[in-house]
Amino acid sequence: MLSSELLGFPADARVLIVNCDDFGMRRGINAAVVEAIESGIAGSCSLMVPCGGTEEAMRLLRERPEVSFGVHLSLVCEVGARNGLGPVAPKADVGSLVDADGELYTPERRSELMARARIEDVEVEFRAQVEAVVAAGLVPAHLDWHCLLDGGRGDIFELTVALAGEYGLAVRVWGEAGRQRVRGLPVVDHDFLDSFSLPLDGKAERYARLLRELPVGLSEWAVHPGLGDAQSRAVDPEGWRVRQSDYEFLVSAEARELIEEEGVFVVGYQGVREKWRRDVG
């Protein structure tokens, strides 16, 4: 059975999660994510907790309780995104997760991190990130990972699924091994799209074609909208164009018209969460 059917959609329905990753990284991303959800075709977002724009992002979510969001569990964090405090948990409690300067590893060093991260430290940090969100008066719908395919390691994946069951949340799962582990729960039926994998040239046309050719079942796009503001250009000289081009398509009239013309159901993670809560919690 297709995951879309597990969520209650007809057998021939084309269902798409358009999730805005990296909410909380910085102000230009926060503004773009909110607009992509409120005026564009995005249906949910994922909040990064150990970042400079996190407090603003949490405030924006408190003002918009209808927005479906997840916790973008972060063991790695880009330079320029961090708030200078490293992990959310006390550094002494998560020593295997920080570098010699006491900071989270950057994505370029994720292999080094995966080789030394103790699962006990990962649990402490993941709990600290989820609890920070709960303490802010927010109720997430799902858990996913920043820059790590299904957690980066099997034991981290299993830990996250266990935490999701404890907190009553869903998990974004898109690697084949992870999908096999949670068979019977709603996860993507088709190849997962990370917008950073798309070339910049002709991106809008590529998105339009993907919508027209969207297969029956549940699909997910992890998009990364952001404004091309001065701060973004300064701290993210390579990635800001990816984010701006995502933003421009998501809020375009063409995207909204295509969704309507094609009869695509765009959803967030709330319905997925309810199914996971019944079957895992």
UniProtKB/TrEMBL annotation:
Q: Which residues cross the membrane?
A: none
| Magnesium keyword on record | yes
Q: Which InterPro entries match?
A: Glyco_hydro/deAcase_b/a-brl (IPR011330), YdjC-like (IPR006879)
State its Enzyme Commission number(s). 3.5.1.105
Q: What class of enzyme is it?
A: hydrolase
Annotated GO MF terms: chitin disaccharide deacetylase activity
Note whether Acyltransferase occurs among the keywords.
Answer: no
Query: What protein name does the entry list?
Result: Glycoside hydrolase/deacetylase ChbG (UPF0249 family)
Q: Which UniProt keywords apply?
A: Carbohydrate metabolism, Hydrolase, Magnesium, Metal-binding
* Known cofactor(s): Mg(2+)
